[in-house]
Design goal:
The protein has 211 residues and is of the alpha+beta class. The protein has two domains: 4-90, no CATH class; 116-196, no CATH class. 38% of the residues lie in helices and 14% in strands. The strands form two sheets. A three-stranded antiparallel β-sheet has the order 1-2-3, covered by helices on one side. Strand 2 (31-36) and strand 3 form a beta hairpin.
Length: 211
């Protein structure tokens, strides 16, 4: 197995070529040659290296090889089990994934700051970890303050995260750097959630909601 610093790469896999299976005593292995990003950077790894890859690579590889599932069945089965385990763990804290599985998040959120009522709504705090925003629970209710931590982003649905981004953008005291860092983290997580939700039907038998 290669060390993670040689395999974890942010550039997306755009092409994959799988060599013939490598025979081992314990399980079927295989080697991969992939092209990444706009520069088509070439990378090589084996099936045993996959746990050290960027998890998004698992989804990309799974979707690519699923197009010829019969040919790559042992590899697809291996990737499928990895993704199932990964999503089950993510489902312990992500509010939208738990809804699909008809469960509730089991990871407790960070507690609100003691003096958050005195903080200016929309202002990103000095360490960049949290922001106060205002919201209504119902259309006929009054606005109230909520202490939002980036570490708690998984307990807010996507529409609420998008509202938080808009709310943050209206506060002029935030620096461009703080705004960008805050936005990048939330937008990244929205995309991660979108990708995980898109692959769930391929991995699980999802029960459809009755109207």
């Amino acid at each position: 197995m290669k060390p993670q610093y040689e395999t974890w790469i942010a550039k997306n896999i755009i092409v994959v070529k799988v060599s013939d299976p490598i025979e081992t005593d314990s399980f079927p292995n295989a080697s991969f040659k992939v092209a990444r990003g706009s520069t088509s950077q070439v990378c090589k790894f084996t099936l045993v290296d996959i746990p050290c890859l960027n998890p998004y690579d698992w989804i990309l590889l799974f979707n690519m090889l699923l197009k010829d599932e019969q040919k790559y069945e042992p590899i697809v089965a291996h990737l499928k089990q990895m993704l199932i385990s990964y999503i089950q763990e993510a489902g312990k804290m992500d509010v939208e994934i738990t809804i699909v599985h008809r469960k509730r998040p089991s990871v407790l959120p960070k507690e609100a700051l003691k003096d958050f009522d005195k903080m200016k709504p929309g202002k990103i705090q000095k360490d960049g970890s949290c922001m106060i925003f205002q919201m209504k629970e119902r259309t006929d209710a009054d606005f109230h303050k909520v202490c939002f931590f980036l570490a708690n982003k998984h307990i807010y649905n996507t529409s609420c995260l998008q509202y938080i981004l808009e709310f943050k953008g209206k506060c002029r005291v935030n620096s461009k750097g703080d705004k960008k860092c805050f936005s990048d983290m939330i937008l990244w997580y929205i995309q991660v959630r979108k990708e995980l939700l898109s692959i769930i039907p391929k991995l699980f038998e999802v029960q459809k909601r009755t109207p």
